[in-house]
Fold this sequence. Notes:
- The chain has two domains: 20-217, Endonuclease Chain A (Endonuclease, Chain A); 240-444, Endonuclease Chain A (Endonuclease, Chain A).
- The longest helix has 16 residues, at 58-73.
- The two termini are 38 Å apart.
- It has helices spanning 2-5, 8-11, 29-42, 58-73, 85-88, 101-111, 152-155, 172-187, 206-217, 245-255, 272-283, 314-328, 330-334, 371-375, 392-403, 423-434, 437-444, and strands at residues 16-17, 23-26, 46-50, 78-84, 118-121, 137-139, 142-146, 162-163, 166-170, 193-194, 233-239, 260-265, 287-293, 338-343, 349-350, 354-357, 361-365, 379-385, 406-408.
- The protein is of the alpha+beta class.
Amino acid sequence: MAFLLNRPTLSRLSWLPLQPEDFSTLLQTREFRLQLLAAIAAATQRIYLCALYLENEEAGREILDALYQAKQRCPSLDIRIMVDWHRAQRGRIGEGQSNCNASWYREEAARRELDIPIYGVPVQTRELFGVLHLKGFVIDDTVYYSGASLNNVYLHKQDKYRFDRYHLIRSPQLADAMAGFMVEQFFNDPAVFRLDKPTPPTRSIRKEIRQLRDKLVHSQYRMTHGASAEQLSITAIVGIGKGNRLNRVILDVIASAEHHLFICTPYFNFPRSVVLEINRALRRGVEIDIVVGDKTANDFYIPPEQPFRVIGALPYLYEMNLRRFVKRQRQFVNRGELRVRLWKDGDNTYHLKGIWSDQRYILLTGNNLNPRAFRLDLENALLLHDPQRQLQAQSQAEQQNILRHTTLLGHYRQLEDVRRYPEQIKKLLTRLSRVRIDRMLNLML
């Protein structure tokens, strides 16, 4: 246990033993969709899907149809869906509210005889200040864990995909813990309503939403410690709000590294605490790979030839952050001790997040490793402890698959300077910087 003693948060976690053959890494987005559909078709006990959103397009409809078919086949099957309350009741950015997913849920429920509840979970009174960002689909005794939501691009239903991480963990104890959390925290809470039925306006349940958030601050997965220090093991962590348990685990995982860190984040906007731990790791001789999406692989990116929208400035703001970071750390970049890589594959987008620390800890998470995730959203993660390196081959295969479409940054000047940005973007970012609103945006987005 010596490796845990100087990492107080890690030492207090409840670790479940896991067999290597019960952990599987999928490398392709389309494969994850096919595996998910096959598992739904074969389920016999329960299907609990928790995602930011289930969207009314081909992939979302395919998932919902599969759930209704599973319920038809096995009426006793316990099927429940949880999505963010706010996200479900608005259209995509730039679209009207009439196109919202909640309307689709109600239409589907009205035309079908079977009952599949779709819960809207509000973790804050406004979407800007926090959303349901829990990940993990529990199907019988297996957890399907990914940062992906349920729509075409996340599930590669058509020509484009949003690249994420995809893992299957066969563990009755872990599945029970994650399903039990949803039951305990959501299904009977007065702030949580079914979106497949008429719902009250958000303003009428503000008190209940605040009470739910207060409850979630103190919540955690219920697991019994059953693994020895030398076993492959796994634990689940949940967190919401500043200084939460998941934040501390993430910082401890970075601080535990002695030789190598491999970090993925889609939006380069590390919290200050993460930057400090990365700086400490570099100073103690840890080699670090950071893989981040190119600005054109960001899901908010708008090509210059398309109409300008303010949200399209975000990828440029993240690139500015990255340029400053690489410039500050150029001594480590020059020595090859810090390797920053940009991911880009045609018109596809990048959504990976997670950390490997010395191949001893593997963090699977939907947490974007940004201030919003560390302060506002309800986040979770699965942390694996692999002291015997039993998952090393899978980890190396996954890392190589991630690196396949990356370019190594040799100098910060390889990233565009703000002076070369499209004129409207340049004017907006310059104006925001002058009044320091860009700092506030970095905290919120």
